[in-house]
Amino acid sequence: MSLIKDKLIAEIEKQQKRFKEFEPPYTVGEQLKDIGAESDNIADILYADLQNEQMNIEAAANMLQEYADKNHGREKKFCITPTKADELLRDFYKLPSSSKDNNGEGTTEPEPFVNLADFF
Fold it and tell me: What is the rounded CA–CA span in Å between residue 28 and residue 32?
């Protein structure tokens, strides 16, 4: 693991100590660990943002709560899927989209284009 990824994990775990294991900010931290593991660039962005109180794991959890309240109503039970949470967190931290496709497998190249005219 790279130095920046180690620093990111340490920062997240430091922030997680203020919360119980399954409280929203704690689980946001777990998801950010997964997102940060994708690349050093993403880990660097997250590490810098987490230094800002307005971008820490509690602020991200509050953003997810606001999304849930707006889209599911305050009185209703709600769930944000991991995929939707990933999308919202990437938007919150201004991160690039996941490198995973719909099947959950990493993609390194775009799908090849087949021109049917080539067969005539």
Answer: 6
